[in-house]
């Protein structure tokens, strides 16, 4: 596991948007960001899940979050622009974005891959983070220390049979992160990196590996040190890196 002990006030007064905040790794990250002082913007497609996390954060006496119900499969350019305008009016800046929402699609040979599913996976996993990043960059540039984190995967670094659009989308995610990080190399107030969570006990993992006992893998809460490190000021000099949440690194 990546080793990092986050100070309790690591993200004090920061405004951080998390996509796919209603479940799995995104839910845990949003909770941890909030409990380290951030005001979190919870973006997801299932309102009840976002509301349940909202209540949990509010009941814990943490900074009041914001909810953005948005289906990244069907969102159009104007939805992203509207979101950016809303956030600008409410907060005037953004200090972090965790691009976490994603879908698995099918596990099948390329030869049989359903083209509609292929497009859907690419839309949610790649096009949505691109659109969000593009429309939110003006808000991120208002921050003195902004962190953008993309979510990769082991199959986004080395292709693996039957992982189809999911693997290709994660290669594209690594590419998007690298291109953007290089473009922002001389913009010291915004850094861009990626996290490979590694096998983690979530609904997606259970769907991908139905026969695997869930307790084989760490919970989302257990992989949070890297999510905190890359979002907070201690990673200020890190840009363009793809890091493993369950790797051996320490900070
Ligand atoms: P989950 O399936 O548990 O959660 C995915 C989240 O994304 C959910 O909150 C889901 O919302 C949201 N989401 C999916 N589609 C959309 C959409 N169209 N619009 C808005 N939100 C959407 O997955 P994990 O937590 O396991 O995965 C999180 C990230 O980590 C993904 O990018 C995944 O690829 C990556 N990853 C996960 C690994 C693992 O072992 N778990 C390993 C490697 C990478 P809802 O709950 O409403 O469906």
Radius of gyration, whole Å: 17 Å
Q: How does the overall form come out from the CA principal axes?
A: globular
Number of E strands: 7
Ligands bound here?
NADPH dihydro-nicotinamide-adenine-dinucleotide phosphate
What percent of residues adopt helix (DSSP H or I)?
25-40%
Q: Which architecture would the CATH scheme give at its second level?
A: 3-Layer(aba) Sandwich
* CATH homologous superfamily descriptor: NAD(P)-binding Rossmann-like Domain
Structurally, the number of domains stands at: 1
Largest sheet: 7 strands, parallel
Q: Strand share of the residues?
A: 5-15%
Poorly predicted tracts of residues: none
Strand order, main sheet: write it out. Answer: 3-2-1-4-5-6-7
Q: How many H/I helical runs? A: 7
First-to-last CA distance: 12 Å
Question: What's the CATH C level?
Answer: Alpha Beta
**Nearest-integer average pLDDT:** 97
CATH fold field value:
Rossmann fold
Task: Spell out the blueprint of helices and strands.
Blueprint (H helix, E strand, L loop, with lengths): L14 E5 L4 H12 L3 E6 L2 H13 L6 E4 L7 H15 L4 E3 L16 H26 L5 E6 L12 H20 L6 E7 L6 H6 L15 H8 L10 E3 L7
Parallel strand pairs: 1-2, 1-4, 2-3, 4-5, 5-6, 6-7
Helix pairs in contact: 1-7, 3-4, 4-5
The gist of it:
With 251 residues, the chain is an alpha/beta fold. It has helices at 24-35, 47-59, 77-91, 115-140, 164-183, 203-208, 224-231; strands at 15-19, 39-44, 66-69, 96-98, 146-151, 190-196, 242-244. It has a single domain (15-244), classed as Rossmann fold (3-Layer(aba) Sandwich).
